[in-house]
User: What shape does this take?
Amino acid sequence: MSLLAWIQGPVAKTEAAGQVNLGELIMHHLTDARELELPFFLGTVHLPQGWTLNLGPLGAVDLAPTKHVVLMLIAALLCVAVFIPPARAARRRDEGAAPRGLGGGMEAMVLYFRDEVVRANIGHGADAYVPYILTLFFFILFMNLLGLVPWGGSATGNLAVTAGLALCSFVLVEISGMRALGLRGYLHTIFYAPEGMAGIGKVLMLVLMTPVELMGKLTKPFALTVRLFANMTAGHTLIFALGGLVFVFANIFAAGGAAVVTAAMATGVMVLEVLVAFLQAFIFAMLTAVFVGLIRHAH
Assistant: This one.
């Protein structure tokens, strides 16, 4: 599917008196919505609204699905479609036989993550974390790639989504620390004073270091949230800005020449965005493994 076909759907909604609002075009792709745009002549699907849960004094929670929620569900289904067939084939395969096709590629990737990402950063007991970290990588990867599909969108360009993923990793990290260190050892990662100190010196270190250690815990999920959100949002903004130049410069230069130049530039950025999609998913999964390893070996 061409870049222009990807842009023409939102453009049809932003055209007014022969003009295209490039800012509205970009925000239309980046922001969440209550509707899904279907390819070609299939039109738009309006998602249901009014699904609210009343929590009394805490207010009401909106449970109605949005575009990004649907894209997350699609990414989850893609994870199932990618993992289940190779897993079934591995069960039926004779012991010692080499996997073939998709199963071979998936098994190589699983082994790489297990050995070079999870075991290398967590150490003893790392295999228990392999399923979560692998799922995290592929789930984020598919959400990133869906943003490069015509009429799609990137759910990882939503702060609520990246914050939710970071919160899951934060809970995993802290619970891992509690289990590995015990309650007293875990509290020592917050209320820190060097071994051997006593008296007023220890009190001063606790007063100084406790806020620092606590902020250190909170900055980890914050960094995961902002890094993924900022990279995906910036990439998609650049792609649509370059693609939108076709319509902005159409009245200045020959439309055909403007289309060729801007489409070539935007296509190059899209190729780079594919690499960024893989890289950001890998970084998020790897940092989760690093944080787990750090707290399990707090010394």
Summary: The chain has a mean pLDDT of 80.
